[in-house]
Amino acid sequence: MDIQKLFSVKDKVVLVTGGGRGIGEMIATGYVQAGAKVYICSRSAKNCEETAAKLNALGPGVCKSLPADLQSVDDIKTLVAKLSEQETHLDVLVNNSGATWGKELFEGGAPIDEYPDEAFQKVVNLNLNRVFSLIQACLPLLRANASTEHPSCIINIGSINGIVPPSFESYAYSASKAGVHHLTRHLSARLGREGILVNAIAPGVFATKMMAGTLKNAGDKIIEGIPLHRVGSPEDIAGTCLYLSSRAGQYTTGATITCDGGSVLSRL
């Protein structure tokens, strides 16, 4: 057993969607600091470029910007075509891009009698349908270097709200994330024979820019409901991804790993 290489992702080629901010940026930072070659995607080209520049300054890995609107199948095809021009293979795909309806995830969404159809269409399309679309488009790159001895890796970012229904009315979000978890299990059974691992991470509350206002207004109450009495840090989510995409995680597939400080347990 080579302990020095057990969690290594050095020189691996990684694509992180939604990598320009929030949890995606935390994940991308972890890979760059572990020496990987990381491509980040987000709808905002400006945000993507700024984050890539910041991560390149950190090193020792590299970060490149590939902006795209993942709601669009055409944009997904263009994204993968651009990636294919630069790389002959892809070691790790992290499907992190996601949407909520307005501020539904933290402020109640819309009452069931008023919940708009466009909310379901938008949220489920990006959070679930396009996860499958991107995986499908990336399969040639994921297969290129994959074997059971040296597998490629897909990590789908779900949510604890896809495990235990939230108290607020974010129907599309929780349903889409539950779908991501089950899609992960289905894909893992199919792709394992090709040397492609497929796992999901279900994050809880993390200290992101999107959560800043909520944590400021209700942080004490939120933390009180988390058994570990803190919110997630970049190390928590990045470390889970590094495990799943390194030698240490090569016998793990089809799993949904909670990364939530135990908050799911407090809801049971």
Automatic annotation (TrEMBL):
Protein name: Rhamnolipids biosynthesis 3-oxoacyl-[acyl-carrier-protein] reductase
Sorted UniProt keywords: NADP, Oxidoreductase
Family statement: Belongs to the short-chain dehydrogenases/reductases (SDR) family.
UniProt GO MF annotations: oxidoreductase activity
Entries under InterPro entries matching the protein: NAD(P)-bd_dom_sf, Sc_DH/Rdtase_CS, SDR_fam, Sec_Metab_Biosynth_SDR
